[in-house]
Amino acid sequence: MQDRIELAVSTVVFSLRPHPETGELTLWLPLVRRIREPYEGRWALPGGPLAPEENLVESARATLQRTTGLTPRHLEQLYAFGDVDRSHSADAAGHARVVSIVYWALVGEDEDAEAVDGENVEWFPVDEIAEEAEPLAFDHGVILDYALRRLRAKVTYSPIAHAFLPEEFPLAQLRRVYEAVLNRALDPSNFRRQILAQGSVEDTGRRQTGTAHRPPKLYRSAPGRSRYALTIQETDQ
Amino acid sequence: MQDRIELAVSTVVFSLRPHPETGELTLWLPLVRRIREPYEGRWALPGGPLAPEENLVESARATLQRTTGLTPRHLEQLYAFGDVDRSHSADAAGHARVVSIVYWALVGEDEDAEAVDGENVEWFPVDEIAEEAEPLAFDHGVILDYALRRLRAKVTYSPIAHAFLPEEFPLAQLRRVYEAVLNRALDPSNFRRQILAQGSVEDTGRRQTGTAHRPPKLYRSAPGRSRYALTIQETDQ
DNA sequence: TCAAAAGTGTTCGCTTTACACCCATGA
DNA sequence: TCATGGGTGTAAAGCGAACACTTTTGA
């Protein structure tokens, strides 16, 4: 057994894009194909070793810039995974023990437009990872599940959903973000009232033009007033 | 600049004991006096380097056993602190960079009875750390604040408060735990209703005897049904 | 029989939910 | 003028807060 513990920083990056089949907005994330052992050929979360003069977040940001061309506006620590047997697989036998500090990120629609995939990087809709990319390298499957649960939980009590959107947006678009993340339909009128009551959003005074219907007001997220919980309810069907 | 990053595991341990002045139940925690540089003589969170064949939680548990004689029933990861300048002090200059994975723990009343303080270990009421133990070594003051916020937040939506109590307890004692943690009085009748509605507690059928008044029912915490939020309200005064 | 804490009942007001309905625009 | 999504109104149900009131014990 080696007595060196390596420290790595990885990130689960979420973005919202249309689903390839249904066309509905869904969560996507980038994975990197491993080009060496252990787990050569498998998909893994983007990450890398922590450099000695680099802060943890900085390390996450640098890796994401390198692999996806992105600098997500929301980047938050998820958890530190460090069990001795955390990649209990034949592939990993004989390799050094790695403690990973994992971050999770949300990419705004505007930011997402800048995405440039690096070598061996590919984006997947989360609901297709099971068929197309599993099993992930190391314990990254477990980490991904954990990140998803955290995202879904946090969206209900904190205004992070805004991070998926550009500077200004109509409320219906914000609702579509919630629906995509929570994977269920929300009542438009009640949604509007709750968001406005929360004060996490402010009217820009402008409206979106060029719609095939009544032009919706544009809002921007109100930085200070991000307090208080939001209880999202679902409509039937 | 050194290119070696050291990995340590530390823990913020909370226990409830009577306040030395008021006699009311308050939060206490153990600190360890540093006996070498950096920060020699200052108080720090119990912790130590991560051993190569040790899991993260195991490391936390081993340190706590060694320093306090305790094996807390609730032990949960708090956060990984790893900024390059996280102990930006003259004391720390020239010392290796350390990434700390910090846990927090709750000690049950029954467990607390077993506490045996090791060398250089002392317990402090949290509200007296400012006068008696500050400034803490490294960034441990920041970490402690963060742990306190997390404890107070989590107590309102999860039944962790039970961890402070022995197997069986009357509801009034559980209420006193909430009051100590949240630092405010709660309405006994509404508290009772909320806890029972939650289902996080079950009737043992027994009662506490030897009280100077009507003997209260004894409850035990119901492991499975720890769902759903609890909104605690305060009584005035 | 009194004090003290356990435990129950009830009212008030606010929030959530469901859903009907009106508004403004492009086609 | 019609279809479509934006946006408002509102009544019913549910829930938290406040607090009066009953119960049960030891002293």
UniProtKB/TrEMBL annotation, chains A, B:
Pfam families the record matches: NUDIX (PF00293), WHD_NrtR (PF21906)
InterPro entries given in the database record: NUDIX_hydrolase-like_dom_sf, NUDIX_hydrolase_dom, WH-like_DNA-bd_sf, WH_DNA-bd_sf, WHD_NrtR
Region described as Disordered: spans on this chain: 198-220
Gene3D superfamilies: Nucleoside Triphosphate Pyrophosphohydrolase (3.90.79.10), Winged helix-like DNA-binding domain superfamily/Winged helix DNA-binding domain (1.10.10.10)
Domain Nudix hydrolase: 4-148
Endpoints of the signal sequence: none
Name this polypeptide is given: NUDIX domain-containing protein
Organism of this sequence: Nesterenkonia sedimenti
